[in-house]
Every structure is written in C-alpha cells, then in structure tokens.
Amino acid sequence: MPYITLFGGLIVAAWYGGAAPALAAALAGWIAARLLFIEPRGQIAIEGTQGAIEVAAYALSSLLIAGLGGAMQRARRAAEEGERRFRGFMQHSPNGVFIKDAQGRYIFMNRVGEKLVGTASWEGKTDADLLPREVADQVMAHDREVLSADAARRYQVSLPRPEGTLTLRSVKFPLRDPEGRRYVGAVTMDVTAEQEAQRQLQTIADALPAVVLMVDRELRFQYINQLGAQWMRRAPQDVVGKPVAELIGEQGFAEIRPYLDRVLAGETVIYEREVEYPAFGRRWAAVHLAPLPDGFVAVTTDIHERKRMEQALQEADRRKDQFIATLAHELRNPLAPIRMAVALLGNERAADHDRSWALGVVERQVGNMARLIEDLLDMARITSGKLLMRKERVLLATVIDAALETSRPAIEAARHRLVTSLPPAPVVLHADPTRLAQVLANLLNNSAKYTPPGGVIELGAELADRELVLSVRDNGMGFPPELGEHLFEPFAQWAPAEAAAAGLGIGLALVRGIVALHDGTVSAASAGPGKGSRFEVRLPLDESVPARERAAPAPLSASGLGRRVLVADDNRDAADALCRVLSLLGYDTRAAYDGAEAIELCDSFRPHVAVLDIGMPGRSGYEVAQRVRARKGREIKLIALTGWGSDADVQRARDAGFDQHLTKPVDPAVLGEMLSRS
Fold it and tell me: Which of the listed residues 484, 508, 540 is the one where a domain comes to its end?
C-alpha cells in the first residue's frame, strides 16, 4: 500500500511543524501518490469501495499523526519556553547558579557564576579544569557528600582571585531528570563584603570594654566577643552553639529568664544585677537586651566599681548625716553648762564660791570646744595633705609622759587601772612629739571611754626588727572582728545596741593619718563585743643620733605694765572681753570694731602690739596689716587672731605682714606668753 510510505514524512512534519504542516504533508503525499504511483497514474480519483476505504484509513491515520505531532510540538515548545524562562531567571539571579552531572561536568552556569569562576568557557569541564587544585578538591568533596546524602547541604569556601580572595557560601542540592540521571545543583553567594563587615564589627566588638553576644530564639549562643569569652574562661568557639542555661547554670538562668522572655517578645530590656563570672567571681553588671528577628543581642558592662563607689558614697552620706547630728550634740554638750554658768555669774545673789565654780565650768567647756574644733581642723588638714609635721629626734619616754598628762584625768575619772610596760633602755624616734603624743592620748582616751568603770588599760612598747611597737589594750566593750579596718575611717563609730557611741568618730581617723605621716601603721583587733580591744602602732626607729631632752618652756611674764595693745574684731563682745583680760595683766588696751578704725588707732594710740581679726568689714585684717607695715614698718608686732586655721591661712597671714597666727578660741595664757615676748 503506497500510503504507508508517506507516514514517515507525516511524522517528521508533525514533530517539527505541528498539526497544520502534518496535514498539508498528508494531502501533498496523497496527491503525489495518486499521480505518480497508483494506477491509473496521472489521475486523482477514488475507485471503488476498496479505494475509498484506503483513502479513509490514510486520512484517519494522517489526522491522528497530525494531532499527536501537534500535541508533541506544543509540549516541546512549552518545555523549551520553560527552559528559556528558567535560564533567563537563572541568568538574572544575583547569585551564582551551577548544575553539574554526576561526573562533575558543568552543564549550566549563569553569568554571575562565570564571573565567580573567572571564565565563560566552562561547558563540559569539571572543577579540576576551572579552579585551583585545593579549592577544586573541596568543591568536589562537597558534591560527593550531597549525592551520597541525597540531601541539601551548606558550605563555605575561599577562592583566590587576582583581585583578592573571595569568600563563597553555597547551598548545594541533588537533582534527577525523568530518566533517573543525577545532578548536583548549587546556588552560590559572594559573601566577601559581608564577611569583611562582620570582621570589622567583630574587631569593634572585641575592642569594646563590654561583653557583646547574640542568642537565637532557642536560647543558644550565636556569637560572643573576646571579652565575654575571657569572662567565661572559654574560647569563643566553645561558647557558640551552646545553650545559655548550660554555660551560666540553671540557677543563673532561672534568675534572668523573665528578662529573656521579655526581649524575645520584642521588648528592649535594661537591668542591673550581680553575676557570677568564672574569671572574677560575683560582680555587678549592667545588661542591655535588644530584640532581633531571630533572637536578641546582649551588651553587658561591668559596673562593679561604680556600684562600690555608689555604696561608698551612700555610706559616706550616711556617716556625714551621722557626723552632723553628732557634731550638733557635741557642741550642745559644752554650751549647756556654759549657758548655766553665765546665768549663775549674772545673778547678783550668787556666792563667791558659786562664781568660782561657774568660771571653772566655762573654762573647761571652752577648752572642750576648742579641742573639738582643733580635731576637726586636723582631720581636714590630713585629708588635704596639709598637716604640718615638726619632726625631731625625741625620746619615747618624753612622748609617753606628754600623752599620759593629757589622758590621765579621763582614766582616773573612770577609776581605770593603768598598766605600763616600756623598754628599759631609751628609745629614740624621729617624730613630731606633739602629734605622736596626740596619737597615744587619743588611743588611751578611746580605751577609757569604751571600757566600763574600774577596767584595766595597758600601755606597752617593745622593739621588733628596727621598729617600735606601741600597744594600747583594754578589757572594755570591744567590737566585731571584721570592723577592725573600718574603725579608722572618718566618722566611723561602733557601739553595742545597749550603749550609745560617743564623740564624733574622728579620733581614730586622726591616729591613722598622723601615724601614716610618720611612715608607720596602725591596726585594731578584738575577739568580739565585750572581749576588749587592742590597738597597735608600728613606727620606724631612728638610731643615728641620740635624742636631746626637750627644754622646759621659759617662765611667762606676769606683767604688761607700760605696754599698749590694740585689739580689732568686728565681734564687739570678743574684742571687749579680750581687752578686759589683757587689762587685768597690766596692758593698756584699746578696741577697734572694723578695719578702718584699727588703722586710725594705730596712728593715734601707737600700740606696741596689734591683735587683729581677719574677717572684718570694710578692711580685712590682711589689709590692715599691709597698711600698718607700709606706714610703721616693724615698729608694731602684729598677731592674727582668727577662726581660719589652715596652713594656707597661716601662710597668707605671714605674707600680709603678721608676726604670729593664733586660732580662735585662744588660751589667754598662750596669748599672754606671746605678748610678754614681744
């Protein structure tokens, strides 16, 4: 049957042209067959039933072939269009896209991939043909792993290029075609810039004086800087990936869990707490938590020193308030009997012995106030480093005698028994005898104050390794052992609940300051409340030159006859009172109540000595001294009598022309001695 020979052409026409070309080819083939091969040749006619059946069968077969060919051609075109779109999409991908067969030969690579590899001539080649040997080995090993696992994997490789090393991050996955052939697909991203930015951020994070870390939503560490790793005493790689609870402990995790829940809910959280660090122990930290899409970032700063300073400031503020309250109390104590004594002196019916008693009260209480103020000034001088030390070689016995002279009244008043134990041979010190006596007197007075009546106080001295060890021991109320160091801080006091602390709390601080200026140390110890105390002072010895006995003071002149003294003070009571006292000593006195009047009296009264207050209105004592010196030279002796008593105040007075400087309130005997020698 000649029509059968036409089906091959029909199939070809259908495959390449579709249904319409196949039908045209069928018609053209039938016509050609009728004209050239079927008898009678040269005629187009259907002869008989048999001929009609053959034509119908041919037509039906042609239609079927054309239909199937059209469908196949449409499917092929759709596939080609899909592939074209796929390739177009892959070509425009911002990442490199690669497809390799099971033998590692490239069958697809987009333009970005060509740039990464460095060539457009890749088809049919392998990684060994395109990449450096070491990189190719890594990539092919990754491909084998993906095919073996039949699962996607993530990888990162470094690819050397002339312009620099690229860091490439890839997602690789297995592929199969309908015939079951296996391929490896890869989407590769150039993360060089990202990695460099991360390195820069890590450098910055490592340079920060704070712990920086990132945690995912499963509460696992994703990043930690060097400082954080040091605080944990771990390498960063030993922290990343570990659960937070595992590294900080279940208890610590439970304490911060409420904060973590809040930041994971999208809230920024800031808090402060004490944290237990393996490298440092328990320290205060400030923590700032900020939410991220996949977790949160935490910045932790060590604020331990700040917290200690805050606590110290709070403690200092508490002590300041306590000091002010105590100072008010201590000032009221002497003022109360002074006020009563003044009332008694002003009563005309008071007997002579009552007046004598009242004068004694005033003298004692004014002395107490003067010592209180002098202690405060000494504390200020020590704090500012301006306490003047007049050191000399002095015998220990001389210092102890002076201290006992000061402390014995308080010891005897409380009926204490004093026991002394001193070295048999003379001990020489290079010290300020007055200040060192003040140290011992303060320690003895402290024991006398805090020991119940009838107690025992022991004063001891012994030599040990070119040091002198002075100790004051008592069987008094004692103190908790841990307070030994704190007792020497300014305004620090301790007393049991049933007793009240006495004094301002600066005596022991003065002791420590003065001892330190002698290159010595002081310590306090007690077995506990009610078990007594021991204070120990260690001082270096001076064995170079024997000490000289201190000369006794020259006897004071009891008469000021013929001597003229000018007293200037804007406090009229103070000026008049001093004039009266000096008049009783035989001096001829005049009072001035401001600076201008003082200058006028210096011209008219022609005093031998002028005692001047500093803070006078109009012209200060400094100005008066300068004017007097300019007009009178050294004819007049100038004495500054003021409430300003620092070393700087003394120097300023000397610079203004004063010969002497005295601090209020002055002992009349001291002023009398100074006047008698003028």
Answer: 540
